[in-house]
């Protein structure tokens, strides 16, 4: 088999890259995934999962996800719709079946594993069928695209990091669906402090579980973005307001924590426990409704990780590695494992190399925007060093320092992209750019005030943020 691009992984990254290559070149693509269907981790996600942000800027560039509908009921009335996991899986299947494959330039090989280049070098690569073990050699004319670096680790598929005694009810969030709440017994123990654990807590409380019947093992505390700051179209002035306030604060603070606290004071970022120390920042968003629900859970055990689950106790260690006393839990409690790491945090490496493209974060925001930009830049007639200059790999540390880095690098990187007319036009038009609607609405009084604030403080903010993270302002 021969192809121009061999894309490993048909999740959000791989699908966005393939879509841009088909749209902006005459190249053909072979898309390989170990799953039978496209969609990556969404295929295995828990059934009540939803996007953290509006559907308006998720998916692939060519095809809208949802109807850009404003919700009229519920706690998020007035905000734009967020697709469910099932919606996203169906969307990617539709994009593959009605957009990519009908182009005549995409072949999808589901249930195949990528093995290696046959001899470690050259243009020939090997894949193997999960079904029967048969191998296929693929000759790649342009590049192999590794779209797995940002793959999400989720509870259903990850290696559980603690031991479980025989007979203890430990389950992933997937097994809470349907009428499962009625089968949980008198107490639920939620293990993990990330967005999955928050989703589980809110879901249980919304379905009538008493917050006093929940024990929450929360190793570390997170900073979360207010979801009202992520709205598109006519509400995108809120996004500009968020950015301008971030820049204004970044011009004067002395630490990333002080910057986050400044944003919290304005109601633009949140901690579940506003009195505690939060160090994690992975870009997750939250609504006021969710925040209020989470704060009702008082049985929180902080600063420990579970080592083993027994019938009436948890063996734990402190996050810093020190010994910690066992945690008593009611006998017969249901333990929900939410400890998977989520979105990958690969060490940054050049995205573009001879014969290789490694998809990583190159924008601040969600994965599809970064992946689509990489796919588009792959089609441009630019030297590799210039492709890497306009699409550098941004580190994903998962710590609050990322907030400072977004300021210290963002302006310079935006300037580089604006200097390339083709890339600037693409970035202004793609539906995956969360801020694409801002220019249409900046002329409002609120928008103009936020824009002027941004301009007034941006230079000082870039210099100060770069100083605090120990870097020069340029990338």
Describe this structure in words.
The protein contains twelve helices and 20 strands. The strands form four sheets. Strands 1, 2, 3, 4, 5, 6, 19 and 20 form an eight-stranded mixed beta sheet that branches. Strands 8-18-9-10-14 form a five-stranded parallel beta sheet, with helices on one face. It is 31% helix and 18% strand. The chain is α/β, with parallel strands linked by helices and 475 residues long. The two termini are 39 Å apart. The longest helix is centred in the last third of the chain and has 24 residues, at 445-468. It has helices spanning 12-24, 85-100, 195-206, 237-250, 256-265, 288-294, 367-378, 384-390, 401-418, 421-429, 438-441, 445-468; strands at residues 2-8, 29-33, 106-110, 112-117, 124-129, 135-146, 163-164, 170-171, 188-191, 214-218, 224-226, 269-270, 285-286, 300-302, 304-309, 313-318, 327-328, 334-337, 352-353, 356-358.
